[in-house]
Amino acid sequence: MGGMGRTGGTARSGDAAPLVLVGGAVAQRPGRGGHAGVFLQWLLGLQQLGCRVAFVDRLLPGDEAAQRAWLRTVFAPYDVPVLLAGVDRLPRADLLLDVMGYTGVDADVRAFVDVDPGFGQLWAELGLHDPYGAYDAFVTVGTAVGSPTSLVPTRGLDWLPVPPPVHLPSWPVGRGGPTFTTVASWRGPFGPVEHAGRSYGLRVHSFRPLLGLRTAAGVEIELALAIDPADEADRVALLAAGFRLADPARVAGTPQDYRRYVSASAGELCVAKDLYVATRGGWFSDRSACYLAAGRPVVAQDTGWTAALPSGEGLLAFSDTASAAAALAEVVAAPYRHARAARELAEAHLSAPVVIGPLLDRLLGTGAVRAAA
User: Fold this and answer.
1) Percent of the chain beyond pLDDT 70?
2) Listed residue (79, 66, 35) closest to 255, CA to CA
3) What is the DSSP string of 241-273?
4) What is the domain-level CATH number for residue 16?
5) Using one digit for the tens of pLDDT, what is the confidence trace for 213-249?
6) Does residue 255 sit in the same domain as residue 307?
């Protein structure tokens, strides 16, 4: 950790492949294989396109040895250099893709990558936190942000909506299993947001109205759910409603565990945070992208993403218990057709060349991908 390896330390000249830094918070979240996988999809996808890459993180005060150990666990299987802001000497890169503005390091082009559309923008509206000022471009997985139907404030910025990219070679299609699953947090690190007289909630607030889904659908559903002891009443209610619960640290504690868990599923039931649903920003889950790439169908709550991605085969939208149960029944009735459609959708709409290639051309100029390749 700390060396650039064969990635090199100078920005491109002429037709040299661009050097892209991906910045984000991994070190501080040990045992969260799915979270770490978000950054791996970007990094491996960029490498697939021929870019030189490195991941940039920063250590928080505390157990730095444990943070470094987790970074090694995540990145050791891959040819991805890891650099620590404030510790290592960072190269001058062509492009920084800074996920949620976490690292703030310098580059020729600095792009803020928004993976929680609505939260940051509403915090900025409320004067709580505004990270956008130091960036040249603004990318969001809110596929409807900036559209007339979205309530996510744009802050006057020209947002570039893209679905979350997935590195298809990391997700070979397998047989799957009998149980629908997901990997999620019940509340997550953020609290509800109060804005303009309305409260925008979390996954807990979206899921409580769906407690009857397991009975209505008649299928096995396991939630690998990070749920705080303070929400014990919700845990009891989920179990009483027939959902199975798993410890995400056990079943998805590393990126490899996460991949195995996703691939062994019948498909995903994706319940979105209430804020995503209510603001209609078109949030689409990086986790759902991985399920689709593995040939596992996804039944996903509609946040406005249906305007950007096809729904009906492989990926099915729902808005309430009845429509979710109907979508699950459709998948169960034709599992092989939906599995094939899931992978085909990932190939056509979510693969790194499809998502990242045009984005690189937009951020670095036409021909950036050809130069990388």
Assistant:
1) 94
2) 35
3) TT-EEE-HHHHSSSHHHHHHHHHTSSEEEEPPP
4) 3.40.50
5) 999 999 999 999 999 999 999 999 999 999 999 999 9
6) yes
Looking at this protein, which amino acid is placed at residue 272? A
**pLDDT for the residue numbered 2:** 47
Within a 10 A sphere around the Cβ of 319, how many other Cβ atoms? Answer: 10
The pair of three-digit structure tokens given for residue 54, joined into one six-digit string: 């490195």
Report d(CA 369, CA 353) in Å as an integer. Answer: 9
Domain that holds residue 158: 5-163+352-367
Cα(344)–Cα(355) distance, integer angstroms? 15
| Average pLDDT over the chain, rounded to an integer | 94
Tell me which amino acid residue 106 is.
D
Q: Which residues pair with 226 in a beta bridge?
A: 185
Compute the distance between CA of residue 323 and CA of residue 337 in angstroms, rounded to an integer: 20
DSSP structural state of residue 95:
E
Report the alpha-carbon distance of residue 94 to residue 110 in Å, rounded: 9
- Alpha carbon distance 24, 329 (integer Å): 38
